[in-house]
Amino acid sequence: MKRILVAGVGNLFMGDDAFGVEVARQLAARSLPDEITVIDFGIRGLDLAYALLNGYDLAILIDTTQRGGAPGTLYVLEPDTDHWHTDRPAADAHGMVPEQAIRFARMLGEKLPPLRVIACEPATFDAASDGTFRLSEAVQAAVEPAIELVRSLIAEVLHTAEVETTGQFHA
Fold this sequence. Notes:
The protein is built from five helices and seven strands. The protein is α/β, with parallel strands linked by helices. Strands 2-1-3-5-4 form a five-stranded mixed sheet, sandwiched between helices.
């Protein structure tokens, strides 16, 4: 049985930075196959680093990235961590920079699972003025398409034609 980690990353109080958290929240509320573990890591970089060492066959990180596209643009990235140097600072216990968490996990000497990053182009990282959690309209509109991307990556690894988030597989 292949095991897959889906990791939501981001800060709820920083506007669109909460994208990964929201995608993980919505996925976790759905019925998924037992092979899938969905965790909202928020800004807990060390927790993510240690989770990456738990024998998963794939880790899907969901986050924001600024790559110059229109807000709400989704990217599927495949970082090649085998060539990352581990001499940079390790993970921060009070913040989340996924690259640092991954480097820290590699420093521990364990083999990491293949990684995919589903990233969304943010519109803003401004905190909501009323203290509430809120994504911009463009990034909120990208949540369901990101869930579909997660489903397709899971299906690819589990060698099925489609994985419904109801927990059913279709060949």
